[in-house]
Please model this.
Amino acid sequence: MNAIKIKDIITRRKCDKSVFYDVCYEWEDILAEKLNVPLYDMSNVDFLYKKIKGKILPNSYSISQNVNVPISIYILISYTDLKLYSNINGIPIFIDIWNDIAIDFIMRKMQKFYFFVTSKDVYNRFKEKYPKCNVLYCQLSVSDKYFSQNFKDYSKVYDVIQVGRRNELLHGWMLEYVKKNPDIEYIYSQKGSTVGSLEYISTKRGSIGEIKSREEYIKILSENKVSLVSSPGIDSSRKQNLLRADYLTPRFYESAVLGCALIGRYTLNEENFSTGISNVCPMVNDYLQFEKALNEALAISMEGLYRNNETFIRNSLTSSRIEQITKGLREINES
Model:
């Protein structure tokens, strides 16, 4: 078999306006740039809409894939959106896969075909359940656009933030810390007034409203000295359904590249160990550990933080995932 050629990176950014998808568009931009292939926006193509001429796309559909000709790559946040690409010659990258329902669904459609997943735990689970499946692995990342040597582009005006999904252990310890240290400002989320919305609260200023755009999210994260982070499988009521699948979310990588010191809760599994996360993000198990880690994080200079985190940051950039993608494509060649 000749070396597999990537034709383009497929995007749907003109169709999907949700802020939730913005991080994927950032990854797409870097993949296209570093692989030296075009971005192909399929948003206006009929079959990418959920309705075609008034008809709902059927649940019964087939996937085609021919790796002997130039092929497309596309990222799927929702695995059920696979139907929208039924007549595309491409290799999907599935993200946010965490249960058997998703794994079994993907295998029903992709049994004969190659696909990427973004968690090593999920990769291993596919191999356990379906030993002959053609699953490949490519880790999550942060866009190179945010990389700043020595964090020179980021000024710190706030102290500590926990943005997005809230880990209640970290939250409780932080509130206890603020009681002892009232000059420290902590920004955190709580459920907003509308379904799915998050209101942000400052322990000094009260409600500061919602974060409604990717730009607002990046700005407030970059303005904080410390980011409290957690993986989705740790301390979660869904833990029994996570199938040992736990991973570093993009927030870990974004926080690091935006010049935040990290303190967190995460599973030190195969994937997370390989990232060196424990070198840049103390794993805290009680309040005393948390307090010590936070005192050190608030005291470190930006120069010292960059020196400590630089290797992790450079290995977390989307451009560094090109090697994983090309490795996966070589595996196809060798199979």
Notes: Residues 145-316 form a domain with the Rossmann fold fold (CATH 3.40.50.2000). Residues 302-316 form the longest helix (15 residues).
